[in-house]
Inverse folding.
């Protein structure tokens, strides 16, 4: 005769669920995960409170706890390093924007001098932003080289590559538009050369240089145009595209190194054609 399941306990006899840190029944009163500190418990409760209402932890787990192929190495960290460089640029850029004035009649240059000579940690933040831009460009090229030489652009990751190409162009455009902002002699003349080079491009060249100059002549609004492109348009696009890039990477998984040999599937080996 099959064994019947035990009848459910009446409510009054059910063991009371334990509160966090109340003990795990082994008598040490410490909790199974050792969370007895009130600060740690407060953190856990806050995270639980948010998660119960948003279910965000599922998405975070999907994004972060993924299987990666055997043999991945330091070259695979170059994309994250590029992202970190971008985040650093975003943070330092926000602080610079708090003092910078896009005023072509001398205000821009003066505000940069103020940042460098007087603002608290201004020279440091400006230096981080300036050197950080070069770091980001170097990292993005190294990351692109890694994905190219490892063949990571092939099926099914073509879209990841195409979005990457757009990210590369946007990063170069960030460098170009940022170069004018100090508004010193070098920035001014280098940008005139750059805008003129853009103007020589086929078909859209002249329209592009008119758009960048905000008219047929290099004038006061050119600086505002570059500033708006540099701190609003391009960062917005870059953030959206990095989001799409990361979504595809999570969805498709990371590609295996090209030297890794696939293990033959025993089931397929037995199949006779
Ligand atoms: C702002 C710029 C970029 C960021 C933040 C970024 C970020 C990332 C990250 C975090 C990964 C995960 C694996 C890894 O790091 O290698 C990745 C993968 C990838 N990226 Fe980028 N990337 C950028 C630009 C580019 C560029 C310029 C290209 C190529 C033109 C590109 C093509 C790819 C490809 C094909 C993968 C898939 C690699 C694989 O599955 O092995 N990315 N990217």
């Amino acid at each position: 005769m099959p064994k019947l399941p035990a009848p459910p306990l009446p409510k009054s006899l059910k063991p009371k669920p334990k509160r966090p840190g109340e003990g795990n029944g082994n008598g040490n009163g410490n909790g199974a995960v050792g969370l007895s500190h009130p600060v740690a418990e407060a953190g856990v409760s806050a995270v639980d409170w948010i998660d119960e209402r948003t279910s965000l932890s599922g998405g975070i787990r999907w994004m972060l706890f993924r299987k990666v192929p055997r043999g991945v190495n330091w070259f695979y960290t170059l994309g994250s390093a590029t992202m970190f460089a971008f985040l650093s640029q975003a943070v330092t850029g926000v602080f610079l924007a708090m003092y910078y004035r896009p005023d072509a009649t001398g205000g821009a240059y003066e505000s940069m001098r103020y940042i460098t000579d007087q603002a608290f940690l201004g020279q440091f933040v400006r230096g981080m932003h300036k050197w950080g831009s070069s770091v980001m460009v170097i990292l993005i090229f190294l990351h692109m080289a890694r994905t190219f030489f490892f063949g990571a652009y092939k099926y099914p990751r073509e879209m990841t590559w195409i979005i990457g190409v757009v990210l590369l162009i946007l990063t170069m455009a960030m460098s170009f538009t940022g170069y004018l902002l100090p508004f010193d002699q070098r920035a001014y003349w280098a940008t005139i050369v750059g805008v003129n080079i853009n103007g020589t491009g086929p078909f859209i060249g002249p329209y592009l240089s008119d758009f960048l100059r905000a008219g047929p002549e290099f004038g006061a609004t050119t600086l505002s145009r570059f500033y708006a492109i540099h701190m609003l348009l391009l960062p917005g696009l870059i953030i959206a595209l990095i989001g799409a890039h990361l979504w595809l990477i999570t969805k498709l998984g990371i590609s295996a190194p090209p030297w890794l040999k696939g293990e033959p599937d025993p089931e397929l080996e037995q199949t006779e054609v």
